[in-house]
Amino acid sequence: MNNPNRPPAGVLGMGLDAFLPAPYAPPSRPARAGSPLEKGLGAVSAAEYASALATLFDSMRHRHDWTGPWYKRGVTALKYLARSLCILPRHQRFLATIADDPVMSAYRQRDPRLLERHMHRYINAHWHRCDRLAYLQQHYRFAKAHLPPGLYELVYAMGHASLGSLTAKDGSLLTLCLRPPIDKGCEGELCLQLCNGNEDPLYSIIFSIADELPTVMIGCLQGPRGAHAKDVVRELTRLLHGMRPKQLMLSLVYAFARHYGIERLVAISNDAHPLRRSGRPLYSDYDAFWEEQHGRRIGGGWYALPASLMHKSEAEVSSNHRAAFRRREALRREVEQLLLNALAPPAPGFEHAANDAPRIPAPVVAGSGNGP
């Protein structure tokens, strides 16, 4: 059952309307040559400059993600303003794209952090802010063009889509859900979750799509946390007939990629994870798992994963474990089918060539700079 009123995590606090300046008029004097502002503006007319600033100041309203006392929210607003001015035309086009799409406008109201995702560490810590913005735009161009309209609206406007349930070993129900990113969305734009019968998350995998050279970029594979996390994973593995939950989640991403004809999959390394340098701990050793899946380190903070997952055949399993093996494979196919049913027939072809989309040289996904 879908939950239209469930907001993504991290959308709390008060807006900053009371502290916004009056409508801005463009200065008569151009910015100093060589300044970050001049580089961000490029050659734009006064009218275009005024329009971009109006859009920018409008994006500062109703910022429920800016929390804390008024002075802290004011500092956050000034940082956002300064970062935006450095890439004003690009940022203005992104804001206009959101405003022109009713689904994205609704999503922006649910999670205002969307408007500045590219101004912070995002998916790959090595990316420059222009790369972050380009990949953000690519993902939503893909989502709008290729996700079924109903699913696109459920995920991004409503914040949650239930894809169906399956029966675990003990007869209990497990649910597959698709939702937008959680916890400020620094690891990707689409989150697949394996949940219990109440749709409380048990395991998550978060990824984005680069559509210019079609690539699935995996930014997070996360299980339960806390003192009893290992016990929860152990019990979930038992309910899945001995299949590791993270293996199942990776299989689902491969099923997603196959459905859209995407052959390139890359996964973030430990050192390039956006939370690695933020002081927050990583609960998973990504490098070890990608190498176990025959991933190959390719630089730029990425592992290139094989075009398809390696699955054992029944003949490779000892006879006394074949019954459990068949149950695991049947369950895996059932979960994948839930996802494929929700995705419906794939749209024909990708729309390549979009503004600000960096060409990704195969097989490396890398940024064009090393600074924020």
Task: Tell me about this structure.
There is one protein chain. The chain is α+β, with helices and mostly antiparallel strands and 372 residues long. It has two domains: 33-145, no CATH class; 148-343, Aminopeptidase. 38% of the residues lie in helices and 14% in strands. The protein has eleven helices and eight strands. Strand 3 and strand 4 (201-210) form a beta hairpin.
Outline the secondary-structure elements.
Blueprint: H1 36-41, H2 46-58, H3 70-86, H4 88-100, H5 102-110, H6 129-146, H7 149-158, E1 161-167, E2 173-179, E3 190-195, E4 201-210, E5 215-222, H8 229-239, H9 245-259, E6 264-268, H10 286-292, E7 296-299, E8 302-305, H11 322-343
Parallel strand pairs: 5-6
Antiparallel strand pairs: 1-2, 2-3, 3-4, 4-5, 6-8, 7-8
Helix pairs in contact: 2-4, 3-4, 4-5, 5-7, 9-11
How would you sum up the major sheet? 8 strands, mixed
Query: What CATH architecture label of the largest domain applies?
Result: 3-Layer(aba) Sandwich
Provide the gyration radius in Å: 22 Å
Determine the N-to-C terminus distance: 41 Å
Question: How many strand segments?
Answer: 8
Count the helices. How many?
Answer: 11
Strand % is: 5-15%
Q: Tell me, rounded to a whole number, the average pLDDT.
A: 81
Name of the top-level CATH class of the largest domain: Alpha Beta
The share of residues in helices is 25-40%
* Strand order in the sheet with the most strands: 1-2-3-4-5-6-8-7
Structural class: alpha+beta
Written as H for each helix and E for each strand, in order along the chain, the element string is HHHHHHHEEEEEHHEHEEH
Write the CATH fold name of the largest domain: Aminopeptidase
Uncertain segments = 1-33, 351-372
Number of separate domains: 2
Spatial shape? elongated
